Amino acid sequence: MKLTINDLVNAIDYSEASRIIIDFIRNYVFNVANVDNVVIGVSGGVDSSTTLTLLVKALSNNRVIALIMPDSRVTPREDVEDAVKLCENLGVKYLIIDIDNMVDLVTNKVSSVINQELDYKTIGNVRARVRALTLYTIANKLNAIVVGTGDKSEILLGYFTKYGDGAADIMPIGDLYKTQVRYLAKYLGLPEKIVFKPSSPRLWPGQTAENELGLKYEEIDLILYSILELKLKPSQVPEIINVEKWKVDKVLKLLTTNEHKRKLPVIPKVSKGPTVGIDWRTCISKRIEI
Q1: pLDDT grade for 246, boundaries at 50, 70 and 90
Q2: Is the CB of residue 93 less than 8 Å from the CB of residue 64?
Q3: CB neighbours of 186 closer than 8 A, spacing ≥ 6?
Q4: Closest Cα to residue 108, out of 96, 122, 94, 95?
């Protein structure tokens, strides 16, 4: 048996995936959260653009507020222009909020308190968390929920900032690998410029996801798909998908070491009753008869 990226791509019916996600958004917004609006950060990349498009299809454009949050030192002007153009094409209200000063306020204050300069990765994580803070502040004011834009590849690898771009109330495309998101974007009619734009959190100058991870997403996705969904043994994967063993090892290491990012904070069990995250994992309405 040999596997190629086409096996992963063709594992999804994109019309059906679109329908499922749209129904999920409608049900959560109107029946679960019971809110008026949704707020989403839009970067001009494929994940946020695809999610924004699905939100509009699910809710109509007048219930969607898009925040474009550049930091002029790391955000290419082209990304802002792509985000604005998409919002205008979809008829979505958008706000451009420059976060330069907010990032500086946090980093300068912390740096002065600990008497140390902050490294570029720490500052990058501050950027992600400032964006999350901004999203939630506006969501609180407008009776909205925050919609995340993470995909399955990023979530599994832990390739996101905890309480930054990982902070959201729902993640509509969270069960689609990055490669599949690109094909869904193409199905939805997004511009090819966005569909095939190299992924980047834009947390520091010149950052791209694939360069930082050291692997292409096609490789990452096929490794994850082979092990998690086809249940292949990691030792089988290099030959079956024609990839070097060290790449499989690296993906597995990221998958395991970043498990903490996918969980609630760890709580020690003290009480005799149910403990959140240990033996209390279901919705309260399913556990208690009213």
Answers
A1: very high
A2: yes
A3: 192, 195
A4: 122
Domains in the chain, CATH or no CATH each: 5-207 (3.40.50.620)
The predicted structure's pLDDT at residue 263: 86
64 contacts 56 by C-beta, under 8 angstroms: yes
Cβ–Cβ < 8 Å for 253, 156: no
Structure tokens at 7: 């096996």
Q: In the predicted model, what is the mean pLDDT of the chain?
A: 92
Q: What kind and span of H or E run contains 232?
A: none
CA nearest 207: which of 127, 90, 144? Answer: 127
| Distance in angstroms (rounded) separating the CA atoms of residues 114 and 47 | 36
Structure tokens belonging to residue 154: 């990023």
Name the percent of the chain lying above pLDDT 90: 82
Closest-CA residue to 60 (of 83, 31, 90): 90
